[in-house]
Design brief:
This protein is an alpha/beta fold. It has helices spanning about 5-10, 15-35, 40-50, 60-65, 85-90, 135-145, 165-180, 190-200; strands spanning about 50-55, 75-80, 100, 115-125, 150-160, 200-210, 210-215. The structure holds S-adenosylmethionine.
Length: about 220
């Protein structure tokens, strides 16, 4: 895969884009376009966040900033390919002194192997990544699973492009895919489920509007 393919999905997140992201995506699009209002996603985040958390594709850090961790001093590491996203999210959760890692999740990660996380979140990351679900999601998992603790969970949400949406969602989906901000035309619930079942012992998957919400555990929970 070309590095430029991966960069296209993260380059969109300029300071200006991040400045309006919470309003344009989290308030407007989630409710009126993707039909998955942000409070659903925040509840989902809160169900899975732990005190040793790795977040991948951090955007503005909204879910970490508003999320509830089990304790007041969670250890958080942020991964993103875009410096603006990393610094915006880090500033938002400065109270937790997060570690930051500038990296492409489609390549091996520059993390120390003795670092083990009990939760790993990837909100709205997969639909930004190039390649079909059956290639990109296993590639992401290959890079993060060595850092997942035995009882840890990988969770996230992603906008699904298949079956083809209609109305406003179809317009947004087409435009974002043409600009390569999204690469999710063929991403389906079934495709997501297949990857999860191939990698995890216990899987949870649901769909709200056009958004798939998923979680996978190494062990039975
Ligand atoms: C849509 S934002 C998601 C923000 C936040 N997690 C949320 O749920 O609202 C996608 C983020 O993923 C990052 N990203 C895209 N491609 C990436 C890649 N290949 N590796 C790491 N981060 C990537 C972007 O820079 C951006 O910060």
């Amino acid at each position: 895969m070309l590095q430029s393919d991966a960069i296209a999905g993260s380059a969109f997140y300029t300071r200006t884009a991040l400045f309006i992201y919470d309003y344009s995506v989290l308030w407007f699009s989630n409710r009126f376009v993707w039909q998955c209002p942000t409070p659903h996603l925040l509840t989902f985040y809160n169900q899975h966040l732990t005190d040793r958390h790795l977040d991948i594709g951090v955007g503005t850090g909204y879910f970490l900033g508003h999320g509830m961790f089990p304790s007041s001093k969670p250890q958080i590491t942020l991964i993103d390919l875009n410096r603006n996203s990393l610094s915006t999210a880090a500033k938002r959760i400065a109270r937790y002194s997060p570690a930051m890692c500038l990296a492409n999740i489609l390549e091996p990660l520059p993390l120390a192997l003795d670092q083990q996380f009990t939760s790993m979140g990837m909100g709205y990351l997969l639909h930004c990544l190039p390649r079909p679900m059956g290639e990109k999601f296993p590639q992401v998992l290959q890079h993060i699973l060595p850092f997942l603790a035995n009882d840890g969970v990988v969770f996230g949400a992603t906008i699904l492009g298949s079956p083809r949406p209609t109305g406003l969602a179809a317009t947004f989906m087409r435009t974002y895919n043409q600009k390569r901000i999204f690469s999710n035309i063929d991403d389906s619930y079934e495709g997501l489920e297949e990857v999860l079942r191939n990698h995890f012992y216990t899987v949870s998957l649901s769909q709200i509007g056009h958004v798939g919400l998923f979680a996978g555990w190494h062990k039975r929970v």
